[in-house]
Amino acid sequence: MTQSQVLPVPAPPPMRRGPPLLAAAPQLYGAALPTGSFQDALSEFGTAVALNPGKLIHRVEYGRTLLRLGHKQEALSELRHSLTLDIEDINAQLQREDAELLVQGLEKELSRTLPITWGFAAAGGGGGGTSSGSSAASSSSSAPPGGQQGRQ
């Protein structure tokens, strides 16, 4: 080959949008990746916590998964517990920072909702009248209009 003969360089393939590893999964693994569920993830993270209860990352992921399933009180408990564990590396540090943000958000959210539900159970609590007032309100809500409450 002489200097005047230059072989053409093929153009790179066009960039595809989307996660490349997910698109390549059938070629890499021989099949598509199996679908999972948060319930499956909860079981797996629960096993990880049982095997190594002092591992911060396992606790945070378990708490995160509880939160995704709507178990807010349990998630808050797990995430709070994770904040007491040792930070072993940079990944654990990042997980701890995430856990701190999740705890703050959950505490704020639950502080808005819990007093409302607890206020009805308290006898003679402030702002809601007495317990007899709340029982009268509950009986009037179950009675038909002009029904039994008018006869009492």
Compile the SSE list and pairings:
Blueprint: H1 20-29, H2 38-51, H3 56-68, H4 72-82, H5 90-121, H6 131-142, H7 148-151
Helix pairs in contact: 2-3, 3-4, 3-5, 4-5
Q: What does the model show?
A:
It is a single chain. The chain has a domain at about 35-115: Alpha Horseshoe (Serine Threonine Protein Phosphatase 5, Tetratricopeptide repeat), CATH 1.25.40. By secondary structure, it is mainly α. It has 7 helices and no strands. It is elongated. Mean pLDDT is about 75; it is low at about 125-150.
Stated plainly, the CATH topology of the domain at 37-117 is called Serine Threonine Protein Phosphatase 5, Tetratricopeptide repeat
Shape: elongated
**Main sheet?**
none
Q: What is the CATH top level name of the domain at 37-117?
A: Mainly Alpha
The total of beta strands comes to 0
Structural class: mainly alpha
Counting DSSP H or I runs of 4 or more residues, the number of helices is: 7
Primary descriptors:
152 residues, mainly alpha, Serine Threonine Protein Phosphatase 5, Tetratricopeptide repeat, 63% helix
Entry summary:
The protein is mainly alpha-helical and 152 residues long. The chain has helices spanning 20-29, 38-51, 56-68, 72-82, 90-121, 131-142, 148-151.
